[in-house]
From TrEMBL:
<dbReference type="GO" id="GO:0007266">
    <property type="term" value="P:Rho protein signal transduction"/>
</dbReference>
<dbReference type="GO" id="GO:0097149">
    <property type="term" value="C:centralspindlin complex"/>
</dbReference>
<protein>
    <submittedName>
        <fullName>Rac GTPase-activating protein 1-like protein</fullName>
    </submittedName>
</protein>
<dbReference type="GO" id="GO:0005096">
    <property type="term" value="F:GTPase activator activity"/>
</dbReference>
<dbReference type="GO" id="GO:0032154">
    <property type="term" value="C:cleavage furrow"/>
</dbReference>
<dbReference type="InterPro" id="IPR008936">
    <property type="entry name" value="Rho_GTPase_activation_prot"/>
</dbReference>
<dbReference type="GO" id="GO:0005634">
    <property type="term" value="C:nucleus"/>
</dbReference>
<dbReference type="GO" id="GO:0051256">
    <property type="term" value="P:mitotic spindle midzone assembly"/>
</dbReference>
<dbReference type="GO" id="GO:0000281">
    <property type="term" value="P:mitotic cytokinesis"/>
</dbReference>
<dbReference type="InterPro" id="IPR000198">
    <property type="entry name" value="RhoGAP_dom"/>
</dbReference>
<feature type="domain" description="Rho-GAP">
    <location>
        <begin position="1"/>
        <end position="107"/>
    </location>
</feature>
<dbReference type="Pfam" id="PF00620">
    <property type="entry name" value="RhoGAP"/>
</dbReference>
<dbReference type="GO" id="GO:0051233">
    <property type="term" value="C:spindle midzone"/>
</dbReference>
<dbReference type="GO" id="GO:0030496">
    <property type="term" value="C:midbody"/>
</dbReference>
Length: 153
C-alpha cells in the first residue's frame, strides 16, 4: 500500500471531518508521506480521475474505487484478521474517495514539484569506475535507464 501504516489512522480520521477541515487534514497527511509514495499516489489519482470521467455507470465507478482502495490504502496493521479486513474495507474506500475529491491542481503541484527537483538533478553527472553517468538523479541515487547516457572514456 502507498499509505503508510503509521499514517493510516490519520487518513481515516480526516475522512470523518467536513469540508475544508477534511481537505486540510488530507493534504497534511499526504505531505507527511515518503516522497515516492506521495508521487505515486498523485500520479495514480490523476489517472483514475481521467478514467472515472469516462465511466457513466456508477456501479463500475464504485468497483474501480474499491479495487484501487485495497491496493493503495491498505490496512491499518500488517497481518489483519478477516474481521479487520471487512471492517476497514469501507474506510479504505472512503479514504480513496476523499483523495479523488482533492483538486487536480493539488495533485499536479505535487508532481511538478518532484519533476522540477529531478530536472535539476538530471543535469548532474557522476564518475564511477571509469564510467560517467549523465543525467543521474543524484538525490535518489538510482540512475534511470530511460534518462541516462553511459559512455566510457
Amino acid at each position: 500500500p502507498l499509505i503508510t501504516r503509521v499514517l493510516w489512522r490519520d487518513f481515516a480520521r480526516a475522512t470523518d471531518l467536513d469540508g475544508e477541515r477534511k481537505e486540510d487534514m488530507l493534504r497534511i497527511n499526504v505531505s507527511d508521506l515518503p516522497v515516492p509514495n506521495k508521487d505515486t499516489i498523485a500520479y495514480i489519482i490523476l489517472h483514475l480521475k481521467r478514467i472515472l470521467l469516462k465511466i457513466s455507470n456508477e456501479k463500475q465507478k464504485h468497483s474501480l474505487i474499491k479495487v484501487f482502495s485495497k491496493m493503495m490504502i491498505g490496512n491499518s496493521i500488517i497481518n489483519p484478521t478477516t474481521h479487520i479486513l471487512e471492517s476497514e474495507a469501507a474506510k479504505q474506500e472512503k479514504i480513496m474517495q476523499s483523495l479523488l475529491e482533492l483538486s487536480d491542481d493539488y495533485w499536479n503541484r505535487i508532481l511538478s514539484h518532484t519533476s522540477t527537483i529531478e530536472s535539476q538533478n538530471s543535469r548532474k553527472s557522476i564518475r564511477c569506475s571509469g564510467i560517467e553517468l549523465r543525467g543521474v538523479s543524484v538525490g535518489r541515487g538510482i540512475p534511470s535507464p530511460l534518462v541516462n547516457v553511459l559512455f566510457r572514456n
